[in-house]
User: What shape does this take?
Amino acid sequence: MPKKLVLGNWKMHGGIQANGDRLKRLVAGFTTREAHCDVGVCVPHLYLAQAQEMLKATSVRWGVQDISTHEEGAYTGEVSARMASEFGVAYALAGHSERRTYHGETDEMVAAKVARCLDVGIVPVLCVGETLDERERGETRQVVERQLTAILKMRPTDDARRFVVAYEPVWAIGTGRSASAKQAQDVHAFLRQVLDSWSSSLSSVAILYGGSVKASNADELFAMPDIDGGLIGGASLDANEFLGIIEATQPHTVSQS
Ligand code: PEP
Assistant: This one.
């Protein structure tokens, strides 16, 4: 069975001192757990050099929360995938719901970001998920399928194999209200089916769950057959809590009833 993957999304939090403390505690705590999963933290661009310096000799990887749709040019304020790759970035989030909502990112823009990452060898983490209204209207599958296939249509499947999907119901992000393990598993199984029907070479694509994951609910979520790990926002800012989530990726005995 492939290792699970746990990624932190620090959002726009942190500072040199706080990051340093958090990373030191994470690295010290992760040393004993590293066999069980892959771990990374997606930091604000300004702190990439700090993350690289502190993590380069460890098993913890680092990533960014967004990159430009463009390769290079007159795009004030943007950071390209190539620039991120110069700092050893392993992962880049693409299409996080906060980017889709506050920055008007469309499926086409997200697909371009995924493509830019693949071009330079960064693993894109494609975020998909429905709003509460969409869930209540019974449109969850339709929404996540549209968001996922917008990317698949743009890339040959050989390339697409190198990305990660994160199912993040918008109503669960930062609200303290996680999807239940069953709700998440249902959507993950559906996403797996969409990937499989697109190409058998996509069957190994990891599908992470994100949305109010904490050490206390991670066990149950990670026990689900189609949940390959987590994308963790708020809880990744607390090293102990994040380590507790990492710990939950160990083989365990939670019942799946
Ligand atoms: C996120 O930002 O991707 C996220 C899942 O946030 P939180 O864990 O805080 O809900």
